[in-house]
Each structure stands twice: as structure tokens, then as C-alpha cells.
Amino acid sequence: MTSQVSSPAEHADGAVVGEQRKPAGAKDVRRLDRVIIRFAGDSGDGMQLTGDRFTSETASFGNDLSTLPNFPAEIRAPAGTLPGVSSFQLHFADHDILTPGDAPNVLVAMNPAALKANIGDVPRGAEIIVNTDEFTKRAMSKVGYAASPLEDGSLDGYSVHPVPLTTMTVEALKEFSLSRKEAERSKNMFALGLLSWMYHRPTEGTEKFLQTKFARKPDIAAANIAAFRAGWNFGETTEDFAVSYEVAPAAHTFPTGTYRNISGNLALSYGLIAASRQADLPLYLGSYPITPASDILHELSKHKNFGVRTFQAEDEIAGIGAALGAAFGGSLGVTTTSGPGVALKSETVGLAVSLELPLLVIDIQRGGPSTGLPTKTEQADLLQAMYGRNGEAPVPVVAPRTPADCFDAAIEAARIALMYRTPVLLLSDGYLANGSEPWRIPDTDELPDLRVQFAQGPNHTLDDGTEVFWPYKRDPQTLARPWAIPGTPGLEHRIGGIEKQDGSGNISYDPANHDFMVRTRQAKIDGIDVPDIEVDDPSGEATTLVLGWGSTYGPITAAVRRLRTAGENIAQAHLRHLNPFPRNLGTVLKRYDKVVIPEMNLGQLATLIRAKYLVDAHSYNQVNGMPFKAEQLATALKEAIDG
């Protein structure tokens, strides 16, 4: 569940978690089951770094966690303005959680813009830590504050901690030969130190990180560490923070194994490398940088030791062209992009359909149309993935559900591409790409064997007894054609986008042959072996099914848990395979009186479900660039049950 605690010492249901008092003279320590913290400031204030470091230490401590980075698209948005606010939200707990949380229990606001942009999400009674040094008349007027919110009573319903972060950071660093401007840049480390004390986070990892990050600038490394320690010491000594909090490790949440914190894009990168190793094929990435997919290019470029080759192309079309060429040459070809790039790549995806070569097209969806909202999330490329090509050009579509699941989704996409000789579209999104959660590192013997058999010689005998190689002679089970590596003696064959003759692969304009080839390519996709969809319906008495896909999994599951806790019967199912659909999906849908489909679009999956299964699916849609909130979904689903 992701319902919020009503105060720092209470469960969502109001039950006190427990309080442990230290010996006389020491501060009180209260135990919590969960906390949601949001760091917010200018895009140049280092909020993403601060949040990332707090997350890393929380992961090493053993809490379950989920994060939501949120930042402007501009490299350096206007300082002190609402559009320039960057934030990082972290939800961590002593038990299984599914979302970054609906609303923060603690807001760290580095300036007036950060406070104004985020105060609407903060529930009454929550703690707000504000950097008072930035609340100047000019800074406040820039975001529309006629009077200081720290003095006009507008924050009376919150537990406000005014802290002169900038002044204290500069004072802590006065022994270093830094200018005031340089010293001020470390104020995010002061804030991180304070929050690390407040929630008993480990500190060794952050200090090692800073030493490594600024290894070539030891003075800067030392200054940041000093600021970090000063923040910790301030929390320990000030009377304004009379209580610190403990959130125990999630000892019973995870199966036994080795875990690390991982983002969706990093998990996807590792999944691609694992797939190439399991297939015993070199991995080739042809890509053009685009938010929020660029991290995959950055990460894969670091792994040449695993046979990974990365090519930063001059544009989207060149990127996929190079990847398809690599697939023709016997590599696991991959191209990464976001929605606008998929549009540009569509012709080459169609060529890959015609050539029937394995190719992974990874779309990290973002808000659209056109350039849209580069740093915000959406899942509105589903119909583009399904139909965004000329002619009948069917392509399998796979979607991960969580950041860690991006690893498994990448391997599954590779399995389909290699076994069925087809391009595959993988639909992640900005929420998954940048968000993070604990991930159990799998043993290699848990991964599937993806090795393929390349064509070795002739595979067809002509009427006159001549043995020849037919590039479009198909496997009777998968309908996949042979994969012939260029340069293999006797396997010369023609490729191109013009229609092929069945079997021989020669150019053909014959109407009957085109009809046969179109239907065969469709039958190949329809025949892909995908697991049945699993339904979570504990009571077996639910009449309403909530069906989701992609990153809505966390909010949907959290909402369903809330409703079940309140005594409601509701079933849940989540799709990984969107083309083809699982074979039992139609049967599952007909079991329920109502089917509700929440999506971060205007009803694209609902459109497909209605068309294919003639089910009166109800859409619940959001397109504001942010993921669903659990409470919001729970309310909508309760209305659907009662309606």
C-alpha cells in the first residue's frame, strides 16, 4: 500500500508505530514503517544527485524503495522560477512497496520556487525543511509570493524547520580556499547530511562516492564531504530537530539473494548485455541521443569487454539502419529512442519486417506529440508501436512493469526477436527509465538459453535435383526464415524492401504471392509463444477486473491493495505482451462484469481490447506527464465497483 502516514510517527491507519527513547541527554528516536521524502530546488542545485545518494544509502541499508525523479527538459532552466524546479521523491519502507508515494511526508525546499511548486502535494502535518537564505524579496516575488510564506501564517499547518542552509554551508567550508559561489554549491550535501542523520542513513558510501567523483579535484571532494558531515552534525546538535526516525530494513520482503538499487534504463542495459551473452552473439547498438533513452547508449558504451559495440549515429534513421545492418551481419541489433524517434525509424522497422531479421527497437516513451514533454512520462506510443508503419507490417510488442523488470523484458524481447526472426518493439517509459528499486541479481543459470543456429548450407532441392539455399524457407513451428551470415559460401541471397517470392526470396510482384507473404508474416507474429496472463483474484468473487500494462503496474497494485484492505473484492491482471496478446486473455475478460483499464494516454489499450474482444472496457486516463497516484486510482476503481 502507499497510503501516507498522517504524522511522522503513525501508520496510514493512525496506529502509532512505536517510539524508542535514548538515554537522558540524547534525542528521541521514533520508528516508522515508511517515509516519503522529496528534495526540491533549482535544476542547478543538485537535487537529482542528492536524491540518488540518499537512495543508494537506503538501498544498502536494506529498505524496499521506489523513486520518482522529476526535472525540467532544459539543460539549465531559469534559476528561481517555477519551470526551473527539479525534484526527487523517494519512498522507502520496512516492507514491500510499489510506488514512489502519493505525497511526501518531508519536503526539502531549497528556494521559494521549490516550495511553491511542491506545497500543493504536501499533506498537513508533514515536515518542511526550507533554506531560509534563499527567501529574499526578489526571489519570492519571482514566483508570486507577495509576502514571505515563512512569516504570513500560510505554513501554520505544517511542521516547518527554517534552516539557513547556504550560510551554514559557507561557514562550514571557510577553511577551504573556495569562493563563496563555489562553497554555496555544496549546500545540497549539507541538506543530504541533515536528512541522513534524521533517518539514520549510512554515510560511508556517500563519502566514498564523493572521493571518487572528485578524485581529480581533491579540494572539492574534501569540501563536499565537510559539508555533508556538517549537515549531519547540525542535525545531531540543533534543538530544532528533537527527534530522528528509524525505518527498519525490509527483512522479510525479498527472497534470499544479492540485491542492488537499479534504474529502469540501467536494468534494460544489463538485460541487453545478458541477452547477447545468452545468445552468444555480439551486441550492436545503433542509436541517436534522445531523452529519456540516452542513458542506455551511455551505459552500453562502457561494456566493450562483453562484446558490445555502440554507434552514436547522426540521426534516428541512421541509428536503426546501422542496427539492422548489424543484424544482417549476425549481431543482436538494437536501437534505442523515444516516441519522436520511433516515428522517424518506422520505415526501417518496416524493412526489418520484410527482411525478417531480429532487431530490438526500444522506445522509452515520453509526453507528446512531437517534441512534447521530453522529461515527463507517458505511455501513448502503443498504437504507434502496433500500427505506425505503412502496409501490413506486424511487430511484437513487449512492455516492462517496473524498473527492475526492464531487465527481464529486454531478455524476453530478445528471445522473441531471435526465435521468430522479427523486429520487436519494447515499450518502457520515462517513469520506469529514471525511477529505481531494489533488484535481485540473477544467477546466470537462471537465464534462458537464447543461442541460435545460423544457416550452414543448402536447405532446398529443386525439381532437377539441384541443392540450393532458399532464404525464405520457413521453420514449420515458428515460421521463421533462416539466418544466413553474409560471406558464408553458398548462402548468397538478395535482400531489400521489395516483396519477396515465397521460399526463393526473389523479387515478386505476383498478387497471390504478396497475399500469401502478408498473411504468413502476420501468422508468424500471431503464433509467437507467450505465457498466459495471470489473474490476481484472491476471493474468486470479484466482478470487476482492472487490466493494465507497462508502468501502471505499481499504482494499480497499490490501489487494489487499498481496496482489498477496505473489504472490496477486485481482480487484477497486467499485460507484458501486447502483440500478440496472451491466448487466454479473451477468456479472462469474459469472466468479469466490468473491465477497467487505467492508462497514461487517452485509452489506447482499451481501444485494442474493445476491437479484438468486443468487451465494453472502461478507460481511466491521465496525460499530465506524471504517474498515477494510488489514492486517485483507488477512488476511481471504487466508483467502478459501485457503479
TrEMBL record:
Gene3D superfamilies: 3.40.50.920, 3.40.50.970, Pyruvate-ferredoxin oxidoreductase, PFOR, domain III (3.40.920.10). InterPro entries: 2-oxoacid/accept_OxRdtase_asu, PFOR_II, Pyruvate:ferred/Flavod_OxRd, Pyrv/ketoisovalerate_OxRed_cat, Pyrv_Fd/Flavodoxin_OxRdtase_N, Pyrv_flavodox_OxRed_cen, THDP-binding, Transketo_C/PFOR_II. The keyword ATP-binding does not apply. Residues 1-24 are annotated as: Disordered. GO terms for biological process: response to oxidative stress. Pfam families: PFOR_II, POR, POR_N. Residues 44-231 form the Pyruvate/ketoisovalerate oxidoreductase catalytic domain. Residues 286-497 form the Pyruvate flavodoxin/ferredoxin oxidoreductase pyrimidine binding domain. PANTHER family: 2-OXOGLUTARATE OXIDOREDUCTASE SUBUNIT KORA, PYRUVATE-FLAVODOXIN OXIDOREDUCTASE-RELATED. This is 2-oxoacid:acceptor oxidoreductase subunit alpha. It comes from Streptomyces sp. R35. The lineage of its organism: Bacteria, Bacillati, Actinomycetota, Actinomycetes, Kitasatosporales.
